[in-house]
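Lecture 7 notes: from sequence to structure.

We start with a single chain of 95 residues. Read the sequence below before looking at the structure.
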Amino acid sequence: MKFLREKRLEAYTLKRPQEVLLVTVETAGEQDQIMIFKGFSSSLMRPTNFDPEVPILTEEAIIIQIDRLASPYHPHEPKYLQQGMTWEEMEIMLD
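Now the structure, written as tokens:
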């Protein structure tokens, strides 16, 4: 599947609605932050396509870090469960 990482992260949040994932990525030299919650992904720094089949986390994107936060997410008072995870560390939790 072409967009496996995003779909796997979305599935993770479907199983854990009490968590929010904040994924920092770099694509073509530009950083973005993607929030994933209850199976949906949304960019915090650029417009998000209305079509859920259009990926936000492309295969070319380099995942810089993944933060796990408690839901509900409050941007001014985030409650971190785990910060600065690599894709490899998060991938273990997805299996």
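The beta strands are 19-27, 30-37, 40-43, 62-70, 80-85. Keep this in mind for problem set 3.
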